[in-house]
Amino acid sequence: MALIIFDFDGVLADTLNDLIQFGQEVCDELGVQHVVKKDDLGNLEIMSFASFGRACEVPEHLVDEFVKNCLKRFAEKKSPPAIFDGLSTIVRHFAINNTLAIVTTNSSQNVNAFLAEHGLDECVHAVYGIDIPGSKAQKISIAQNQFSAGTKREAVFMIGDSLSDIRAAKEASVTSIAVTWGHQSLEYLLRGNPDHVAHFPRDLIEIIEK
Predict the structure, then answer these.
(1) Is pLDDT of 151 > 90?
(2) pLDDT band at residue 80, thresholds of 50, 70 and 90?
(3) 122-150 pLDDT, tens per residue?
């Protein structure tokens, strides 16, 4: 039995268009003269709404407002984001014999709504969102301590689509898997020297169960 930790945006949830749209709306609302584009996410050293705001040239004193308003738009969206093709099957497969968790810079509320919408709420044991204090590496360690105590686990995996996900996994001393269907390019992800790279959702099964 393994502990498998997923990032949310760009790994499970196809939120790129929403992020660009909401980022632009909030910039306009805050009076920030910036055209939001994919590169604002693709070149982030740390994948977070705060870093996204700074990449969009949001002044530091307005970054918290940018984060709050972006999260609010996700919460108010009529339907949760789409899940990447094949991920529902993969999540259900892993849930049979493993413990699943999500560590994300999105809100736990938004993630739980997404899981319920796609019928995956019973597959995931815990969600550690932006509303829970600590860095991503710290939250990975919290999950590891919560679900590994007194058990013999073969491995702990962190599945992410950003350079900062890979670095957080390494900081927490767990196995990192970089996925290439998310917000950052393979070239950028390789800067973090991930333990594994998955190009398609089905690759995750081979990597984790080999």
Answers:
(1) no
(2) confident
(3) 999 999 999 999 999 999 999 999 887 55
In the chain, the largest separation of any two C-alpha atoms, in whole Å, equals 53
- For the record, the structure tokens of 57 come out as 């040239």
Question: What is the spatial distance between Cα 70 and Cα 58, in angstroms, rounded to a whole number?
Answer: 13
Sign of CA dihedral 115, 167, 200, 202: negative
- Comparing C-alpha atoms, which of 130, 165, 161, 132 is closest to residue 46? 165
Domain limits, the chain: 3-14+80-209, 16-76
The dihedrals phi and psi of 19, each to the nearest 5 degrees, come to: -60, -45
Quick one: CA dihedral 180, 130, 175, 8, positive or negative?
negative
Task: Specify the CATH number for 3-14+80-209; select among 3.50.50.60, 3.40.50.300, 3.20.20.370, 3.40.50.1000.
Answer: 3.40.50.1000
Instruction: Please report, to the nearest 10 degrees, the dihedral formed by the alpha carbons of residues 124, 129, 132, 134 taken in order.
Output: 110
Smallest CA-to-CA distance from 138 within 108, 103, 113 is with: 103
Three-state SS at 207: helix
Q: What is the pTM of this model?
A: 0.89
Closest CA to 52 of 131, 169, 113, 130: 130
The chain-wide mean pLDDT, for the chain, equals 94
* Structure token pair of residue 79: 């339907």
The answer to whether the beta carbons of residues 154 and 2 sit under 8 Å apart is yes
